[in-house]
């Protein structure tokens, strides 16, 4: 290590084992490296989670470094990306959980407790990484409250980075502390579904509920909690979250990534943009439900029915679980995957009207295309940020986890309409078609488009730069604070 690198602020990031968490951590790392030219950031996760990040770093680095083998972590030093380094965490072997399933992507739902258990059992290896890397600071996620304790035992300050909305986070915290009191913000209430919705936090793995993991992760965060949002859309929820957690909540911006579609799969991008270029302005509905949700047969049938009944041009991204390594590694665009769609769907819908993509889609490019008329989305937080920045009107179909509250927030902001369901995940094709027609052809849809275009302008004007500057200042304060005071705080936390 040279003298210049010794002066760098060394940060270790530790996201949960999901693409929807690793990606925001990576974007935060990029912004921090832009702000601080002497900062080196290590991102720690399992090899299968790091591979997409590694591929992206290799694609965006200047020059061809070849296929040199790596010994646990990448250590390049040419440009901004060279100061983002990847550290592999190897989970212990557990029955039914091979290394290619050390991620939530394509993970069968019944294996989620096993994955969390394996994650907990990786604490000794993570502690060894802390000893090896000796970071100045740890930034961690919500399911591993043992991580900040391991860091603080070594005199390393740590803070929590929340990749979800402040609305849904404060909602969960509220019902954890005030179970019998109604959430104070009516716009994002769930009515009779509220209790059932929050009960999912009681799911446990390794004897620890998700509720306890979340609340302890907040408790162990040094001084503040960072969150992927901005005050223009969530000011009151940020303040309420701060009240509930007893910590300052620091919004770091939407952290929308640059458009890397041309680097990820130029052939697929060209195919999609060529198809879009033949469509009328604002005539296409883009349907995507993220990287980790797999529709049931009934849901697939109703969505297919809704698209057909709407008569709209569409791009539909479908995904099906992969359970063996060979299937997981192969390209997900093979034509035979379409046989898992409802029988006859492909025959009834000409390629000129509908484009079905199995696997990856150039989402950023689709959302920004003039032919895009609406985005039918599951309401994952990162996808919503991308849609708002692109000025894409949304049709909300929340299915699980944080999505119902995200959908309520988007409707309250006026940038989306919501498909009515009989309980989460129970929707009908007629309702899907009605909402598509409403956004594409009605005055209501015109109002949604106007609102989301206004939001896009706000996001363009309000740069993430100043939010990142504030975060860097707070990180410096943590790294320079009296470690004895932190040690005493830790002892009290462990005692409680």
UniProtKB/TrEMBL annotation:
CDD domains: GT1_Gtf-like. Its EC number is 2.4.1.-. One of its GO terms (molecular function) is UDP-glycosyltransferase activity. It is an enzyme of class 2 (transferase). Keywords: Glycosyltransferase, Transferase. It comes from the Eukaryota. Gene3D superfamilies: Glycogen Phosphorylase B (3.40.50.2000). Residues 326-348 are annotated as: Disordered. GO terms for biological process: carbohydrate derivative biosynthetic process. Belongs to the UDP-glycosyltransferase family. PANTHER family: GLYCOSYLTRANSFERASE. This is Glycosyltransferase. It comes from Rhynchospora breviuscula.
């Amino acid at each position: 290590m040279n003298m210049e690198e010794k002066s760098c602020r060394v940060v270790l990031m530790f996201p949960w084992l999901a693409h929807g968490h690793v990606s925001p951590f990576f974007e935060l790392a990029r912004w921090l490296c832009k702000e601080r030219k002497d900062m080196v950031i290590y991102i720690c996760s399992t090899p299968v989670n790091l591979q997409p990040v590694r591929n992206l770093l290799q694609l965006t680095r200047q020059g061809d470094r070849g296929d040199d083998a790596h010994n646990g972590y990448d250590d390049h030093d040419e440009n901004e990306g060279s100061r983002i380094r990847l550290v592999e965490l190897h989970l212990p072997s557990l029955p039914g959980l091979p290394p290619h399933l050390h991620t939530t992507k394509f993970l069968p739902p019944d294996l989620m407790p096993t994955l969390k258990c394996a994650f907990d059992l990786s604490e000794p290896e993570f502690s060894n990484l802390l000893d090896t890397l000796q970071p100045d600071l740890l930034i961690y996620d919500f399911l591993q409250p043992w991580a900040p304790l391991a860091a603080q035992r070594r005199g390393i300050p740590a803070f929590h980075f929340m990749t979800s909305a402040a609305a849904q986070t404060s909602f969960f915290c509220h019902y954890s502390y005030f179970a019998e009191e109604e959430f104070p913000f009516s716009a994002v209430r769930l009515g009779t579904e509220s209790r059932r919705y929050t009960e999912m936090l009681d799911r446990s793995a390794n004897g620890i509920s998700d509720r306890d993991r979340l609340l302890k992760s907040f408790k162990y965060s040094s001084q503040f909690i960072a969150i992927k949002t901005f005050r223009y859309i969530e000011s009151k929820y940020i303040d309420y979250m701060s009240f509930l957690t007893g910590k300052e909540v620091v919004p770091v911006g939407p952290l929308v990534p640059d458009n890397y579609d041309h680097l990820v799969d130029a052939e697929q991008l060209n195919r999609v943009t060529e198809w879009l270029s033949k469509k009328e302005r604002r005539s296409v509905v883009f349907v995507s439900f993220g990287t980790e949700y797999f529709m049931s047969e009934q849901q697939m049938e109703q969505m297919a029915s809704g698209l057909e009944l709407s008569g709209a041009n569409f791009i539909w991204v479908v995904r099906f679980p992969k359970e063996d390594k060979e299937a997981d590694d192969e390209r997900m665009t093979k034509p035979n995957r379409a046989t898992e769609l409802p029988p006859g769907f492909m025959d009834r819908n000409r390629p000129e009207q509908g484009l079905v993509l199995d696997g990856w889609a150039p989402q950023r490019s689709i959302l920004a295309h003039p032919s895009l008329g609406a985005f039918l989305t599951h309401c994952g937080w990162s996808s919503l940020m991308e849609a708002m920045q692109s000025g894409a009107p949304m049709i909300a179909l929340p299915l699980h986890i944080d999505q119902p509250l995200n959908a309520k927030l988007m409707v309250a902001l006026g940038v989306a309409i919501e498909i009515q369901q009989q309980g989460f995940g129970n929707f009908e094709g007629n309702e899907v078609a009605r909402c598509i027609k409403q956004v594409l052809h009605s005055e209501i849809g015109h109002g949604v488009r106007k609102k989301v275009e206004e939001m896009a302008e706000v996001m363009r004007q309000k740069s993430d730069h100043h939010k990142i500057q504030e975060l860097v200042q707070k990180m410096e304060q943590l790294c320079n604070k009296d470690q004895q005071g932190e040690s005493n705080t830790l002892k009290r936390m462990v005692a409680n």
